[in-house]
């Protein structure tokens, strides 16, 4: 009894793990299977029998998951290996499918994955246990050498990767040793070179400080000092003091600043990078004698600290590397060409020329002076034109009366009264069919008729008033329509709150205006007329609301009837499906019929049966449309008609 219960537990766990559409076994179920078969040989035999029976299922997904469980048990149990090796021929046939009479079952995608995984597992088993099991060696040799199956060669690939990694590490070690020997040989010269550069930078900084200290500043009175209680003002004060400590470059210290920049550039780009690289080499290199390496590493760390402190001093003094863009701008050459101003058709003074020699811009001050000269020159020209127009009143009068027109082809011969040659367009070769008269001209009056000025009508913009009807969110409607808003009807004047200023729609106002007004003796008749209009309006609005409510009630009743019919049909279909299938297959899967929930019918969970169905692709649908009888006959008829038309056009017209 206990043995049957253990067998039932093992079989239930394995079947539950295999009954899945995922690409791997559930880790919890796999752990439970291994825990169950660990302590009993009988349970392990039951597991082997169950897995072999599952491998005979006509479904590749079931075989694939069973193969994964077999691999886990094969690598952990000697008894399981002995049981499997006895039926290895059948197992390989079911997992690899090398026999033509017994191919792998559908689906094809899972079958290819099953085949590749089985070949990979067989190679792994042969590498691990082939020396102990002759059947494994023979099966591996038969598939590889006789059937010529391609194995992944995982062990060879791992060995190759390991060898490449060892070779790469060896090359790296050799490179580090070469660099270490080079450093050991040239360490004293490197230290001397860096020390020389740092000393030169210190001398330049000392020169700049002495020149800066020579300037005397007036002492600040105690009464003028301020107490900065605000942290922001204090920070601004400190920043300004820090900026004041920087050395300002001028004509006296330009040479020193240039030399300091060169030394600073060498220190940062060459020496600091080299020291960092040597420190990295000393940390990674492996040498038998560590005395020189430790001392050199300590000295290089001290040198790096000195370089960083020197770099900080240079930055505090205002010495920074110039940007490449600024250097290129300073090397540009600015040339001033010849600028001429002249006036056509006037016997005034001769054209003035401003000619300057090419100048090299070496500083911003020089460029600013040149820009100032240019601006003054342009201003002088403009003043000269203004004074000239004032001195000639007739010209200024004509300019005031001249129309402003858009550009067009009619402006090419504006104001000309001469004739134009007809056959001379400036080309060396003229394409004419007959004799050409090169002296033919087009009269001036014809040219005037051809030069028609076209103008586009531009409508004057009219401001369209917004609707300004109140909305649900408290705002006003901003649609701008001419007369009627599609959401709020006729557009009427409204105040800032959206309330109508004049009651009634524009249509009613027009109707009132079209009717002749009768003179009433008193104002009571007008009040009665307004009350009658308001009563009629209220009755119409109430009738409109009642009609809308009736329409909504009809729609709701129709929806309720459709829902009842749909629920009845679904219940009938569910009962018919349950009655036509096996009850045991659907135990625990269907929901209760009486609850009326439709979640089970809507959910489309993939199952093992759905995996066997062939999915209809776009190619299948196109083939079904194109390869039917009607399409084929129509295509043949169209091709025959085209060939006959070509024959009728080509062959009878030969001569």
From TrEMBL:
InterPro entries: UVSSA, UVSSA_C, UVSSA_N_a-solenoid_rpt. Residues 349-366, 513-528 have a biased composition (Polar residues). It comes from the Eukaryota. One of its GO terms (biological process) is response to UV. Keywords: Chromosome, Coiled coil, DNA damage, DNA repair, Metal-binding, Zinc, Zinc-finger. It is found in: Chromosome. Residues 342-368, 495-529, 590-619 are annotated as: Disordered. One of its GO terms (cellular component) is chromosome. The keyword tRNA processing does not apply. One of its GO terms (molecular function) is zinc ion binding. Residues 401-503 form the UV-stimulated scaffold protein A C-terminal domain. PANTHER family: UV-STIMULATED SCAFFOLD PROTEIN A (PTHR28670:SF1). Belongs to the UVSSA family. This is UV-stimulated scaffold protein A C-terminal domain-containing protein. It comes from Perilla frutescens var. hirtella (Perilla citriodora). The lineage of its organism: Eukaryota, Viridiplantae, Streptophyta, Embryophyta, Tracheophyta.
């Amino acid at each position: 009894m206990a043995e049957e219960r253990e067998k039932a537990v093992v079989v239930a766990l394995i079947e539950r793990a295999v009954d899945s559409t995922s690409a791997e076994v559930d880790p919890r179920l796999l752990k439970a299977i291994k825990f169950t078969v660990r302590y009993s040989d009988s349970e392990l035999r039951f597991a082997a029998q169950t897995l072999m029976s599952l491998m005979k299922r006509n479904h590749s997904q079931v075989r694939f998951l069973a193969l994964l469980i077999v691999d886990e048990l094969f690598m952990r149990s000697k008894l399981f290996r002995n049981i499997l090796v006895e039926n290895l021929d059948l197992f390989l046939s079911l997992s690899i499918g090398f026999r033509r009479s017994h191919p792998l079952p559908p689906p094809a995608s899972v079958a290819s994955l099953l085949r590749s995984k089985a070949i990979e597992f067989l190679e792994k088993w042969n590498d691990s246990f082939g020396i102990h099991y002759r059947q494994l060696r023979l099966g591996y040799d038969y598939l590889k050498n006789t059937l010529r199956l391609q194995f992944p060669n995982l062990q060879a690939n791992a060995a190759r990767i390991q060898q490449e990694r060892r070779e790469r590490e060896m090359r790296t070690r050799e490179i580090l040793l070469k660099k270490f020997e080079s450093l050991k040989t040239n360490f004293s010269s490197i230290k001397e070179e860096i020390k020389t550069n740092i000393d030169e930078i210190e001398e330049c900084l000392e020169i700049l400080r002495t020149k800066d200290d020579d300037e005397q500043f007036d002492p600040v009175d105690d009464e003028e000092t301020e107490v900065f209680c605000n942290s922001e003002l204090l920070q601004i004060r400190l920043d300004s003091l820090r900026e004041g400590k920087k050395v300002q470059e001028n004509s006296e210290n330009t040479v020193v600043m240039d030399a300091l920049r060169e030394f600073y550039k060498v220190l940062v780009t060459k020496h600091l990078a080299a020291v960092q690289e040597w420190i990295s080499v000393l940390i990674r290199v492996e040498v038998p004698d560590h005395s020189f390496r430790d001392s050199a590493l300590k000295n290089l760390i001290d040198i790096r600290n000195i370089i960083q402190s020197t770099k900080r001093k240079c930055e505090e003094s205002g010495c920074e590397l110039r940007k490449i863009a600024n250097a290129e701008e300073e090397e540009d050459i600015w040339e001033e060409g010849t600028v001429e101003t002249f006036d056509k058709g006037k016997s005034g003074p001769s054209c003035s020329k401003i000619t300057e020699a090419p100048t090299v811009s070496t500083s911003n001050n020089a460029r600013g002076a040149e820009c100032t000269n240019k601006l003054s020159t342009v201003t002088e020209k403009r003043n000269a034109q203004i004074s000239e127009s004032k001195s000639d009143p007739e010209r200024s009068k004509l300019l005031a009366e001249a129309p402003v027109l858009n550009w067009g082809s009619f402006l090419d011969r504006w104001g000309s009264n001469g004739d134009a040659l007809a056959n001379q367009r400036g080309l060396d070769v003229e394409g004419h069919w007959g004799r050409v008269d090169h002296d033919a001209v087009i009269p001036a009056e014809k040219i005037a008729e051809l030069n028609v000025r076209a103008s586009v009508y531009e409508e004057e913009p009219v401001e369209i008033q917004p609707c300004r009807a109140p909305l649900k969110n408290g705002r006003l409607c901003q649609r701008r329509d001419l007369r009627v808003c599609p959401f709020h009807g006729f557009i009427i004047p409204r105040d800032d709150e959206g309330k109508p200023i004049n009651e009634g729609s524009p249509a009613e106002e027009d109707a009132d205006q079209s009717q002749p007004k009768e003179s009433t003796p008193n104002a009571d008749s007008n009040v009665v007329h307004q009350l009658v209009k308001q009563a009629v309006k209220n009755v119409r609005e109430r009738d409109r609301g009642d009609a809308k409510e009736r329409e909504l009630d009809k729609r709701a009743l129709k929806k309720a009837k459709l829902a009842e019919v749909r629920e009845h049909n679904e219940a009938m279909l569910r009962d018919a499906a349950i009655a036509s299938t096996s009850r045991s297959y659907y135990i625990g899967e269907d929901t209760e019929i009486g609850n009326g929930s439709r979640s089970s019918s809507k959910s489309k969970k993939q199952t093992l049966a759905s995996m066997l169905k062939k999915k209809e692709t776009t190619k299948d649908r196109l083939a079904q449309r194109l390869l039917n009888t009607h399409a084929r006959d129509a295509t043949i008829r169209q091709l025959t008609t085209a060939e006959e038309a070509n024959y009728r056009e080509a062959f009878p017209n030969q001569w």
